[in-house]
Amino acid sequence: MKKFYKIMIAAFVLMFLIAACTPATADEPVVEETEVVAPETGEEASEEEVVEEPEYILIGNLQDETGGMAVLSTPLTYAATMKIEEINAAGGINGRLLKLVTYDTRSDVTEAINAYTRMVEQDQVPVVLGPPISNIGIAVAPVAEELQVPIVGLFMVESAFKQESGEPWTYMFLGQNSDVTQGSIMGQYSYDQLNVRRSALLYNNQNSYSAGIGMAYKAQLEANGAEVIIEETYAWGDQDFRAQLTKIIAEDPDSIFFPGYPAEIPLILAQAYELGYEGLMLSDNSVPPTGLSPNTDPEANKNCYYPYGINPEDPELQAWVAEYEEKFGVAPLAQSFSGADAFGLIVTALEACGDDISSECITAELNNIKGYEGFQGTFDMAADHQPSSLPMAMMKIVDGAQVFDMWYLTSGAVE
Amino acid sequence: MEFRLVLQQIINGLSLGAIYSLIAVGFAMIFNILKFSNFAHGGVLGFSAYAGFLAATKLGLPLFPVILVGMLTGAVTAIIIEFIAFRWIRKRNGQLVYFFVTSITMLMLLQQILIIYFGKAFDYYPITLIKTKVVHLGELTIATNYILTLIATVLAFSLLTWVLKKTKVGIAIRAASNDLVATGLMGINADFIVLATFAVSGMLGGLSGVLYGLSASLTPQIGQIVVKGFIASVLGGLGSLTGVAIAAFALGLIEVFLIATIGSGLSPVVIFFIMVVFLLVRPQGVAGQSFVDKA
Fold this sequence. Notes:
- The structure holds two protein chains of two kinds.
- By secondary structure, chain A is of the alpha/beta class.
- Chain A has helices spanning 2-20, 70-89, 109-121, 134-147, 179-193, 208-223, 242-250, 265-274, 318-328, 334-353, 359-367; strands spanning 30-31, 56-63, 97-104, 128-129, 151-153, 172-174, 198-204, 227-234, 255-257, 280-282, 304-308, 372-374, 377-379, 392-398, 401-409, 412-414.
- Helices cover 73% and strands 3% of the residues of chain B.
- In chain B, strand 1 and strand 2 (140-143) form a beta hairpin.
- The relative contact order of chain B is 0.20.
- Classes of the chains: A alpha/beta, B mainly alpha.
């Protein structure tokens, strides 16, 4: 019996030691720390000076800090952090400093709903920077309708920002092109520029994002007179796609369109190549970073094309890229730039609201945004709560690195 | 269906089955001795996969040392799990359900530990570990890492069979799988035999973790593939390592052909339906033994 208790005590001690080494959990909001400065001199307050505690505008941040999707979510947090530091260094918005209140959604919709509810009811944030994960956006949308605090995110599936009736969810705003837009642009580009006429489609039928882009791509191809000759699906967590790819390759398509998440993209690329397929491999904006070398065999991804939110080679972006890389030690992804734009929409609304930092005002101003100049281009917030007429940068992989090809809309190339 | 297509799908199925077989045999070894389904084996697999990943990326080791690191990690992890999770239950003659519940708890604990350190991104084994990615057999192709897995499975199973039949430890393990208590009464150190079994099972888990990791995205949840090992164990017969190994290959083939015919959405439904039928009609599996009590 004594030995039993000793073992149990040792096990508990081990667990507590491990827990002590962990970063902040989902229950502890990660609050962005900002330095208190004397407004007139900009220098750190001395002991003799009396500095008023600044007022803060709390901005909720609903992201996957852990879990496989963190690779897509973390860029939004990083982009928001950079923007906050820049704004706070300049004195904030109407004298108020910004502070990010982050909750880890762990790629779980229940966690996300609880986190959103907590940040609205306990932290009383007036606005939230939302996730890039569409399944979470879809889950949170009706809750936002109830709690009436706007969320600006990258959840590109239409049902995350539009109701079944076609009316937009009142408090959900998309900061990048939707899945339908992205799939349509990819379809038109494939038809016009890559001469795709007999495509195959491989998508995750349990993932609304993957399915949405896939269906939009198919519809656009068919509208041009091309066809999707075979459709195959896979499920969450699948690692082996050879059964589906073998069937697809047997039909001799001129391309395979495989919209998905970062986990499966390099596997599909590698396995298609291993099965002897050397045709076009077309995907979505989740290709970087996992679809690029060194994660993927350069021979496997050499015929890969995909749409992207920005042109990484744009000279105007390089200063921001350098600052981002220096600060966070990683290269920015598309989600960094579109996340910066999403956060920029929030800042624009806050500035327009002046002293009335309320959810009602912020929601109204988000609806009124016109000519917003972001990394992705200049756009209005359309009536259906997504950007109007944003082109996408069409990318291809050359020697393991992404190379810009051209800007594209559903209507064709953009000069 | 075109003949070449059928052959390629057979190769795909056998490749998948090889991975399942390694996992299932390691899983079944624990069942043979302690008569419960050890889902902590998935945690061992996950730990080993990441150990191999670190050995390849941080230490720059080539393939075979990476595999050895994975196997060693698997053995050590399995031994630690036996000490802290299962030994005290066995010593107190605890009910089998306690072993089962504890094994699931350990799987979740190990996964959470991996999430802490590796949860932020997907990882991949370096593509340089295997120089030649694919072998062509006429119009058919087979990935090199799957050939490796097939060879490793055959070698591991042959070695395991030799150990179980020709060595004292192996004979003792077989005796313990019949009756652990009686084995102890015959003067054999039952604790050592159980430990040895966990070590061997852990090594198999480590081997399967690295080989599976070579062709997969590394996530903390990678160990959940142990469910496939469980299914193969049920179909093949808990208690028969040969039956389990054959059932695992069959499972790989069935899975591939189901995906190719009815799609990936319905494939798990059919597989679990087959498993339920086996549990109802022939719970001892194709080649297993009947047990009065098991978990």
